[in-house]
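Protocol step 6 of 9: fold each sequence in the batch and record its C-alpha cells directly after the sequence line. For illustration, a two-sequence batch is reproduced in full.

Sequence one:
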Amino acid sequence: MRSAAVRPKSVAEAKKVVQHACERMVATGLVIGSAGNVSVRIDDDAFAGEIVVSAGGVPYDDLDPDDHPVVSLADGREKLGAKASSELPLHLGIMRELPSIGAVVHTHSRYAAAFAAARQDVPFVCNESAATLADRILVTRPYAAPGSGELATAALEAFARQPGSLAVLLANHGVVAVGETAEEACLLAAQVEWAANIAYLARTLGGETPLTPDEQAWIGRNYGKTFARERA
C-alpha cells in the first residue's frame, strides 16, 4: 500500500504520531474519553522490533506524547513512558503477525460497534466500503474479552478469513483498522464507521442492497483496487 505519509523515523516522532491519532479519534467521534488505542512501528534501526503504544486509562487531552510507552514486540516489555493501554496484547499480536503494516487503530465508533454487538458483518454498500479492501467487514468469532490474548487471536483469525482486508469488527466491542501509517489507519476506521452508518440507515428504509462482486470490480477498476473475499 502506497501513501504520501511515511512511518515515524524516531521514538519522539512516533510518540507524537500516536498522540495525534488519539486526539483525532476523539475529535472525529470514533471514541469517547480514554477509549480506543493506537500503536505504530518506529522506522529506526536502533528501535527495530519495538513499537509505540498509546498510554492507557487517561483521557487523551490529559496526555502528552512522552506518556506513550515504547514496547518490545519480542517480549512485551514496556519502557520510556507510562503504562500501555490494556489492549496491549491486541496490538502486540497484530504487529507480530502482520509485519507489513505500520499502525493499528482500535476504535469504539457507534454504528460499527452496533454491528459488532449484533455480530453481523458490515456489507459493501458504498464507495467508503472500498477502503477496507474487502467484500465485507468481518466480525470476529467467538467473542473474546477486552485485554486478552484471545482477542488478538480472534482478530487475526478474522483477517485470515479474508486475506488482504484492512479492518475487522471485534464482537460486542469495536473496530480494528490497520495501515501503513497511523494517518491511514485512522482514516480507515472513520470509513468503516461511515459504511456501517449507511448500512444501518438503509435498513431503516427497507433494507440495504450490497454491491455485487461485479459492481465492486467496477469500483475497484476506478480506484485501482481489488477486494478480498472470505475463504470457504
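Sequence two, same batch, same settings:
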Amino acid sequence: MRALIIEDNVKISQIIAKTLLDAGLVSDICETAGDGRAAIDDITYDVVVLDLGLPDEDGLDVLRGVRKSGKAVPILILTARSDIRERVEGLDGGADDYLTKPFSPDELAARVRALLRRPGGALGVELSSGNAVLNTAERSVSIAGQSVVLSRREIDLLELLMRRAGRVVPKATIEENLYEFGAEVASNSVEVCVHRLRRNMEKATADIAIHTVRGVGYLLTEEQAG
C-alpha cells in the first residue's frame, strides 16, 4: 500500500513515514501543496496525510481541490491547528480524520488503519488464501495456523498478491507499492523478493502458488505450489 505525506517539516515527515512503514505502507513525501497536488494527480494513493500550514498554499485548499476533482482517497489532516472551528472546517471540507500535533505515532498508525478498514478502503483486518492468513493490522502471516516469519517487504508483496488473487499483478504495480517514489530500485529487486517469498511459502507448506507470467507480472492461486 502507498501513502502520500504532504508536510514541509522534514523531521516530522520522516517520523510519519517511519510510522506508516511499520503499518505496512510505503510513503512519498511532498513539502509543498503544489507538489502534493501533482502527486495526487499522477499516482493512486491509499491514504494521504496532509499538513495545513504549507509554505505555498493552505492545506485546506489542497483538500478542497482533491474533493472537487472527485477523488475519494482517504485524507487525514495532521496539523498544529487545534481550534475547534478549524477542526470542523477541515472535516466539513472533506477530510476523513483530523489529528493535532504533537501526536502519538501509535495513534496516527491506528487512525490510518481505521481509515483503510472502512468500506471500500484498502485494508481488511485479515486476508486469506488457501491455508495462508495475513493479519494486516499486526503485519503477521500464518500457514495452517502456524506463524511464519517474513520480511516486511515479503509481507507487503504477499498482501498485494492476496488482494488480487487469481489476477495477474503487473511488475510495475508491485514496484509502485513496495518502493518509495525516487528510491533506487535494482532491475531484479521484484524478482528477488518474489523468489524469497515463494521459497518461504514452500517451506511453510502453503497451498498457494505464485506464478510468473513472463513479461507481465505475477499471479497468486490457491493450489499446491510446485
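Proceed to step 7 once all outputs are recorded. Observation for sequence two: The chain has two domains: 2-116, 126-221.
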